[in-house]
Design brief:
The protein is α+β, with helices and mostly antiparallel strands. It has one domain (2-66): 2-Layer Sandwich (Alpha-Beta Plaits), CATH 3.30.70.100. It is 34% helix and 34% strand. It has helices at 13-23, 49-60; strands at residues 2-8, 29-35, 40-45, 64-66. It has a 4-stranded antiparallel beta sheet. A hairpin with a 4-residue loop joins β2 and β3. The protein is globular. The two termini are 19 Å apart. InterPro entries: HMA_dom (IPR006121), HMA_dom_sf (IPR036163).
């Protein structure tokens, strides 16, 4: 599966790197890409519940997930 989340709070390449590194620590995520300019985070994963875990993690590291 591929899911795109819209986030707020990423301002630079460092923010993108922090987001991707954190998300890639989740066991079910095969790949994550973040774009600070658009705020989009694209996540490749196998299970639907992984997205809820990813959203919680994004908030924990200081960003916001737009619903």
């Amino acid at each position: 599966m591929k899911t795109t989340l819209i986030t707020e709070g990423m301002h630079c390449n460092g923010c993108e790197t922090r987001m991707v590194n954190a998300l890639n620590q989740i066991e079910d995520i095969q790949n994550a890409k973040a774009d600070a300019k658009s705020g989009k985070v694209v996540i490749k994963h196998a299970k639907e519940e992984t997205i809820e875990e990813a959203k919680r993690l994004i908030v924990e590291i200081g960003f916001e997930v737009k619903e």
